[in-house]
Amino acid sequence: MDERARDQVIVIGAGPVGLVTALRLARAGIPVTLIEREATLAHDLRASTFHPPTLEMLDELGLTAPLVAQGLEVPTWQVRKHETHEKALFDLAVIAEDTRYPFRLQCEQWKLCELALAQARERDEIELKFGRTVESIAQDDTGVQVRCSDPDGGRCEIRGRWLVAADGSRSTVRALLDLPFEGLTYPETTILVTTRFPFEDHLPGLSRVNYVWIKGGTFSLLRLPDLWRCSVYAAPEESPEQALEPERIQAKLRRIVPSQPDFEILEIRPYRIHQRIVEHYRIGRILLAGDAAHINSPSGGMGMNCGVHDAFNLTDKLPRVYAGENEGVLDLYSRQRQPIAKEEILGQAHRNRTRMLEPDEDERLRTLRDLQATVADPVRHREYLLRSSMITGLRKAAQIH
Ligand SMILES: Cc1cc2nc3c(=O)[nH]c(=O)nc-3n(C[C@H](O)[C@H](O)[C@H](O)COP(=O)(O)OP(=O)(O)OC[C@H]3O[C@@H](n4cnc5c(N)ncnc54)[C@H](O)[C@@H]3O)c2cc1C
């Protein structure tokens, strides 16, 4: 067996989690083979929010400055009532002593992937294998054996000492290991609509991130550098298919800005939301990270961030094993990350979703008053933002030994 096959880490998936994992391992001097099914990076609109601790982590890789340059800083975000414009305005300035980046960054996740891939191409430690699909895995006492196919029917075998499964929510590795992915799929279909329409000129006091109750429904408006992404839902009397008809999408946007006859729409993308998590992130020599291990409602913008935090935790520990520390430290990775994902991320995302889908007007008003009271109290405001900015979860994880 050659030296590389004996020593390397095989990382599956060139999403944000796999790429960050590969880069950090390479910087620790560990050889990596990164296997990606697609021939190129995906550019579809997925995560668009980077939270403060993620920006701190990515700074170590020199990725934060270029991301900030390509994104939009969001110092405040809000929950509001559409009809009255009443709102609870959260201001990240109150956590300025807790983070170097007291803002959410609105920036497409593919920009992180492109920046990380450009770095990966420069690193001798990283071998990139795009256009290869992992089809089987086997592990023994000394390593992991992976079998891949390519679109021309070719096959290859790759061996490594450890394997990181960052192969996303439909993880092949998770399926091959037959790991239960416990949780649920929410009944509603979210419809993501992108448009350059200037909502900020029509809705007074809008932030760049807004979660909005509108009579009988809800929508969110998240700003990206050159467009708004607006999430809307089917009305009770509509089927998910009907709700996607172009005229019905126009009508949904006209409910937001009635004076506008027609909206230029760039993209309409329906998706279902799941909340699921595996029990353990380590199965022998195989480590799960990111969406392969946990998925949640995008409400609050935490899924990708949580995966990047997995990647940093794991790549703090893997080099320690290479330096001679007991492999048990990799169980600590699972012990620190799994419960935090479950309680802090899945739990919070679920509460965010439930809050905005609440149909009862009185209950909405009670919630709004409670959020306004939180914002008015400096201690509660800070605590709320530490949690929603994912800092509390990381602090809790650090206390687990
Ligand atoms: C509409 C939407 C909005 C979102 N908004 C946010 C947000 O604002 N903030 C946030 O933090 N998160 C958000 N998320 C979640 C976020 O996009 C994911 O959490 C993130 O992409 C997970 O990254 P990953 O690297 O774990 O997986 P992925 O990005 O899914 O990457 C997995 C990679 O593995 C590859 N792969 C899969 N199987 C194989 C195989 N067998 N062999 C080889 N390669 C394989 C895939 O091709 C893919 O490139 C959103 C998601 C959606 C859908």
Features:
401 residues; alpha+beta; FAD/NAD(P)-binding domain; 38% helix; globular; binds flavin-adenine dinucleotide
Task: Classify the secondary structure makeup into a structural class.
Answer: alpha+beta
Shape: globular
| Largest sheet data | 8 strands, mixed
What radius of gyration results from the CA coordinates? 22 Å
Annotation, overall tally of beta strands: 20
CATH class of the domain at 3-74 and 103-182 and 275-356: Alpha Beta
Secondary structure elements and pairings:
Elements: H1 3-7, E1 9-12, H2 16-27, E2 32-36, E3 49-50, H3 52-60, H4 64-70, E4 72-74, E5 76-81, E6 87-91, E7 104-106, H5 109-122, E8 126-130, E9 133-139, E10 144-149, E11 155-160, E12 162-165, H6 172-176, E13 182-195, E14 209-214, E15 217-224, E16 227-233, H7 240-243, H8 246-256, E17 265-277, E18 282-283, E19 286-288, E20 294-295, H9 303-322, H10 329-357, H11 361-376, H12 378-388, H13 391-398
Parallel strand pairs: 1-2, 1-12, 2-8, 5-14, 12-19
Antiparallel strand pairs: 3-7, 4-7, 5-6, 9-10, 10-11, 13-16, 13-17, 14-15, 15-16, 17-20, 18-19
This protein binds flavin-adenine dinucleotide.
Could you explain how this protein is built, in words?
- This protein has helices at residues 3-7, 16-27, 52-60, 64-70, 109-122, 172-176, 240-243, 246-256, 303-322, 329-357, 361-376, 378-388, 391-398, and strands at 9-12, 32-36, 49-50, 72-74, 76-81, 87-91, 104-106, 126-130, 133-139, 144-149, 155-160, 162-165, 182-195, 209-214, 217-224, 227-233, 265-277, 282-283, 286-288, 294-295.
- It is globular.
- The protein starts with a helix and ends with a helix.
- The chain is built from 13 helices and 20 strands.
- Helix content is 38%, strand content 28%.
- The protein is α+β, with helices and mostly antiparallel strands and 401 residues long.
- It has a domain at 3-74 and 103-182 and 275-356: FAD/NAD(P)-binding domain (3-Layer(bba) Sandwich), CATH 3.50.50.60.
- Strand 9 and strand 10 (144-149) form a beta hairpin.
- The strands form four sheets. An eight-stranded mixed β-sheet has the order 6-5-14-15-16-13-17-20, sandwiched between helices. A six-stranded mixed β-sheet has the order 8-2-1-12-19-18. A three-stranded antiparallel β-sheet has the order 3-7-4.
- Flavin-adenine dinucleotide (FAD) is lined by residues 12-18, 35-38, 42, 46-49, 109, 133-134, 166-168, 172, 192, 271, 290-291, 298, 301-305, 307.
